[in-house]
Every structure is written in C-alpha cells, then in structure tokens.
Amino acid sequence: MPAARPRLSETRLATYVALALAAAVLCAYALVVRCDFVAFDDNSHVYENPLVLRGLSWAGVRDAFHFHASLWIPLTWISFMADVSLFGLHPGAMHAVNLAFHAASTVVLFSLLHRATGHLWASAFVAALFGLHPINVESVAWVAERKNVLSTFFCLAALLAYVRYAERWRATFYLAAVLCAALSLLAKPMAVTLPFALLLLDHWPLNRWGHVPWRRLLVEKIPFVLLAAGACWMAMHAPQERGALVTTATLPLAARVSNALISYVAYLGTMLWPGGLAVYYPHPIDPQPLLAAAAAALLLAISALAVIWWKKHPYLLAGWCWYLGVLVPVLGLVQVGSQARADRFTYLPQLGLFCALTWLVAELWPAAHRKALATGAVLALTACALLTARNIAPWMDSLALFEHTARVTRGNACAHTNAGLARSRRGDYPAAIAHFQASLRITPDQPAIWNEFGASLTHIGKQADANACFRTALQLDATDLTARYNLATGLCKTGATDEAIAEFRQILHVLPDFARAHFHLGLSLQTQGRTDEARKHLREAARLAPTDQEIIAALRVAEAPPQNTTVIRNPA
User: Fold this and answer.
1) What span, in angstroms and rounded, lies between the C-alpha atoms of 194 and 224?
2) What does each C-alpha distance from 270 to 263, 350, 389, 410, 453 come to in angstroms?
3) Which of 2, 71, 208, 497 has the most CB atoms in a 10 Å sphere around its CB?
4) Nearest Cα to 497, choosing from 534, 461, 453, 528?
C-alpha cells in the first residue's frame, strides 16, 4: 500500500497562494504596460508637472509637501519623481509601478485576512476578487491614480500591523501601524476613515469588543484620529486655494445627499455586474427624488438585516458598515470636482462587501458541496480576470478612453469634449466637430469649447461659421483672449479688416507684448495703406519675436524702398 503524501503546512500553502495571487493579477493586467498617458489628470499630475519632471531631489521632496494640482499628496509626488529619475517620462514604466502596488496590495490583503480570521480559502477568494475585479482597472490603468494604489497599499499594511499588534500587544507593531497610516494619508487622504475601520476590525474578525476594555480600544485610535484630522484639514485647504471646491450655491446639499444615496446603490450594482465602466459619470441635470428614495429604502433594508443578524453573522454588519463608512469621504457631500461618482472611489470600500458576501456563502453553503463552491469561485474569478483584461483597452490612449466613455454613458459633455480635443490633436477635424457639437448640445455655456469648435471649423475652411463660434465664446467670456485672437485672425480672412483691427487693439491693450497680435495688426493696417502705423507694429513684433522668420520677412517688405514695396495680404 503506497504511503500517504504529507500534507502541506498551512504556512507553506499560504505562501503558494500569495504567489499565485500576485501572478494572476500580473497576468490579468499584462496589457496595462502598453497604455499611454491620458489627457485627464495625467497632464497636471505627471507630464506637465514641473515638480515631477525635474526628477527626485531633496529640493523636490521639500516642494512635494506644498499644494500641486489642487492636491496635497506629497508621497504620490515623490513616487512620480522617483519614476522620472529611474525610467524617464515613460508611461509604460509608470503603469507597471501602479500594477506592482496593486499586486502587492492583493497579497497584503490576503495575509491580513488569513491572519485575522484563520480561513485560508475565504481570505484567498476575497483577495483575488479585489485583485481581479474589473471595477479596479481605473485605479491601475490610470497613471494619475498612483495616489489611490499607493494609499491603499499603506492602508492595508497599517491594518495588517494592527492585527499583529492585537495578537500580542507589542509596541513595534502598533508604531508600524501608525507609520503606515501616516504614509497612506500622505499618498491620498482617502484613509481618513481608518480609525473607524480599526474599530470595525476590533468587532470582526478580531472579536475584541467585550474582551478588551472600551477605554483601551478608543485610546488606541487617538494617533490615527489625529492623523486623519490633519489630512482632512489639508484636503479641505487645497481646493479652497485653487477654486476646485464646489459650493452649495452651485450644487445644493439636497442634490448632494440624493446623489450620495444613488451612488451607494450604483456602486453595489457595478460590483455585482461590472458593465459600462467609464472614467467620468456626470452629475444628473435634474433632481431624482424617487430614485434617491428607492436607494435609501434599499440601504435601510440591508442595514436592518445586518443589525438583526449581527450576533449570528457578525461579518455582515462589519462588512456593510465598512462599505457605508469608508465611502463617506468620496460621496460628494463635500464636492471636489464635477463627477457624480467614480469607480476608483470603491477601491478600498469594496473590501467590506467582498468579505461579508464571501463569509456568508462559505458559512451557508452545504459542506457536502464544497467542490461545487470551489468550481463556482474559480469561474467567477476567471470571468473577472477576462473582463479586467478587456477593460484595459479603453485606457490605451485619450481618444479610446473618452470615445468609450461617450458610448457607455448618456449626456456626458466632458467625455465628448475630451474626445473632440483628442480628435482635433490628430487632425481629424470632422470627427472633432461632431464631438464638440454633442458636448455643446448638453452644456452650451462652455466658452473654451466654442473656441475649439471654431478652430476645427477653421481647419476645414468654414471661416464664417468659425467666426460665429468665436463670437459666442466671447459672449460667454469676454476675457477669453484666445477666442478674441482667433476671431480677429478669422475676420482678416473674411475681409472684415476694420473689425479685425479693433479686436487686435483690444488684445494688445491687455497683452502689449503679444508679438503675433502686433504682427497681424501691422499686416491689417498695411492692407489699408496705413504704412507708418503698420511698420511700427511690425517692428514691435520683430523686437518681441526676433527669431520668427515670418515676422522678419514682413518687416523687410514693409521697410523696403517704395519702388520695391508690394502690398501683402494678411495670411492670418
């Protein structure tokens, strides 16, 4: 009779599971290293950010603790600077770093749950669901979301250190938890709910409620509360300096509460059926009281069930409260930006739901059918991995991302605007015009988009229509000098020289050192025979732009002897 094979020890098996989780995440996200930057926060965060572009230095580390791009995220800026020093401005390498942090967070989450609960396979499933769920593609495939993956990695590390501290009450682990919490908040202030999360962890799975005095449980959280308070102050201060904080006059409190309730349920739906994912979900134009009331009723019903079953199934209450509580900072009650919700906001909150549902199924599933449960788990994770790989495609570049977003959402002016800009940069002006028209039908009071619309019409030879767009832009924003300059040059092309001269004079009244305005004004004056005044402006243009050959050539013609002088048409 053959000898029985020795069973793997729990520790060795856990190591193999952790390696398998990391490998699965890396395989599912393999295509992300081929993604480019996108012109949506990647510009302000990375490739147009002077702080990042100069690479890592002591002066840069010091400056990282100031506000940049309306944010106070010093650790994220430092990580970007390190990327530039190591790899240059290489989008594939930066995406690879995001992926590395995501894979590391998956492994840390598995270690955390396994150590806290002792359940190997349930912990592995939750970690795999986090690592492979397509709702997290946005956080990994968007370079600007380094702040999200970095903050979450240190937040999970803080939770793991806290679990180790709860086991033996060693100061080393406690200090490690506080340090990791600080690093998480320096990457992104999302971890301000960490003290609340630690109290939930004390309830389940650590089971410290009732076994450890409440005073001790609360005192343990004081350093975390102080760190969170500091991060909240900095997060609120930054938008006020940059004007990114949306006031209640623009978005009333009732609309914010309504959107928060709907977002809670929308996130639930996306986690259960991750279809139609988009980088930007616009705020609804009209109030949705009935939808908000239905969402509130559903949330109350689930909360009631979690409370009723909290003694028999404590993980339900802990997981549900985790989801509700950790989402609070990003629900838009304090609105920064114009989005209604964002998939990246669920990166950390989703863990509560994943744990609650996984432990409930594992507990209620009949022991005789464990193989069926394992088969279902593998199929679910395989489906998630395939959807994740598929959802990386829209993140290949700005055009793919925003045209995908425009397709899967409705009334999305932001998506059409950015798709139009991407088409325009590629020289595809008819497609750009179609996107700009769609954006302006949804939100007509966008002076910058009217200007872009006019510029695209200019490129296809429809100057009169373009001038009408520039005029609309100026009606909406009379201080828009770009639109005024485009209108002035367009008027030159259509022969409205007197009006063009008046527009150029207005521009030079505000920007007296604008060389091209002097140049076009000089040419316009020259076509009217006002040669002395024309030479004056052409000379000023040449002084301001001594290397501009078009200006130099025009000045030579203007200052040539009378017999050699020819009338130059304004080429605009």
Assistant:
1) 7
2) 10, 11, 17, 17, 35
3) 71
4) 528
The percent of residues above 70 in pLDDT, for the chain, comes to 94
Tokens 């990457």 — which residue? 187
Give the pair of three-digit tokens for residue 262: 């709907």
Q: How far apart are CA 58 and CA 225, in angstroms?
A: 30
Query: Which run of H or E residues covers position 173?
Result: helix 171-187
Strand partners, 245: 336
Q: Which amino acid is present at 212?
A: V
Length of the chain: 572
Collapsed DSSP state (helix, strand, coil) of residue 337 = coil
For 377, the 3-state DSSP assignment is helix
What are the CA-CA distances from residue 485 to residues 312, 452, 528, 570 (Å)?
71, 13, 20, 14
Span 126-160, pLDDT tens digits: 999 999 999 999 999 999 999 999 999 999 999 99
Under DSSP, is residue 436 helix (H, G, I), strand (E, B) or coil? helix
Tokens of residue 443, six digits: 């939100």
- The CA-based dihedral angle spanning residues 516, 522, 525, 529, taken in that order and rounded to the nearest 10 degrees: -150
pLDDT of residue 238: 67
CB-based contact 514:508 (threshold 8 Å)? yes
d(CA 94, CA 96) in angstroms, rounded, equals 5
Query: Cis link prior to 349 (omega < 30° from 0)?
Result: no
Query: What percent of the chain has a predicted confidence (pLDDT) above 90?
Result: 79
How much is the average pLDDT of 288-313? 94
Cα angle 131, 133, 136 (rounded to 5 degrees) comes to 80
pLDDT beyond 70 at 566: no
Instruction: Classify 247 in phi/psi space as left (phi over 0), alpha (psi -120 to 50) or beta.
Output: beta
**d(C-alpha 487, C-alpha 493), whole Å:** 10
> What is the DSSP secondary-structure string of 234-270?
HHHHHHHHHT-BPPTTTS-HHHHHHHHHHHHHHHHHH
* Structure-token pair, residue 563: 């017999």
Residues 6+ apart with CB under 8 A from 470: 450, 451, 454, 483, 484, 486, 487, 490
